[in-house]
């Protein structure tokens, strides 16, 4: 079952992504617990500075005791990916990865990998934070990556209904890897013990120094001046 799930290249069922309540998100008001955010609030994004939250979905999920390991949340230990405290992620929640292995494969150093495929990297492992968890899913008018718990970079794909209501042609901003491609990438990260691939230094965030331009994409202005 676990091997079959690892081959999926698309999001899993409802309840497999989203932020657990209590997760801190970088916003124009500073670091805020995700459950306190509301539609219209501004959240700091990786590519487009401050962006408005267009939709929020909330759900309570009960984790059955017989849930396959591939469907368990994953625990990111404090400091593993520049996160300031232990962090739980749903198994299909995408994380932005930057490394040479992605550049060699895609021609762009950035790709999204589901959290469930990062098990074994810097202590990331499957587990159960509790029997019942509250999930909050943030959505924007386009794909975005947001800053979580200090420096981790987490993907928020634009939901289909927002794209349909806006009547726009959508092209995913980030390449999502799954199956063998994602496993190869994670193995490269494990071999290199690369602690910079999934986040940025938390100390960099208050002043947000300008990043080198991404291939083919303009650098967003510094929202904090």
TrEMBL record:
This is Hint domain-containing protein. Residues 203-225 are annotated as: Disordered. InterPro entries: Hedgehog/Intein_dom, Hint_dom_sf. SUPFAM superfamilies: Hedgehog/intein (Hint) domain. It comes from Ruegeria alba. It comes from the Bacteria. Pfam families: Hint_2. Residues 209-225 have a biased composition (Pro residues). Residues 18-150 form the Hedgehog/Intein (Hint) domain.
């Amino acid at each position: 079952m676990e091997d079959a799930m690892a081959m999926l290249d698309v999001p899993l069922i409802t309840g497999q992504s989203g932020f657990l309540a209590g997760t801190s998100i970088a916003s124009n008001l500073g670091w805020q617990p995700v459950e306190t955010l509301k539609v219209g609030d501004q959240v700091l994004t990786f590519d487009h500075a401050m962006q408005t939250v267009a939709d929020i979905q909330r759900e309570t999920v009960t984790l059955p005791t017989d849930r396959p390991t591939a469907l368990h949340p994953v625990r990111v230990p404090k400091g593993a990916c520049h996160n300031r405290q232990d962090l739980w992620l749903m198994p299909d929640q995408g994380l932005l990865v930057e490394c040479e292995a992605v550049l060699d494969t895609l021609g762009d150093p950035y790709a999204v990998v589901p959290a469930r495929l990062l098990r074994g990297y810097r202590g990331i492992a499957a587990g159960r934070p509790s029997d019942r968890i509250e999930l909050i899913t943030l959505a924007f008018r386009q794909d975005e990556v947001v800053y979580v718990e200090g420096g981790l970079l987490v993907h928020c794909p634009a939901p289909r209904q927002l794209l349909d209501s806006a009547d726009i042609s959508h092209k995913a901003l980030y390449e999502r890897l799954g199956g063998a491609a994602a496993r190869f990438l994670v193995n490269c990260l494990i071999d290199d013990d690369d602690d910079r691939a999934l986040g940025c230094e938390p100390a960099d965030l208050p002043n947000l120094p300008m990043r080198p331009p991404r291939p083919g994409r303009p650098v967003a202005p510094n929202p904090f001046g």
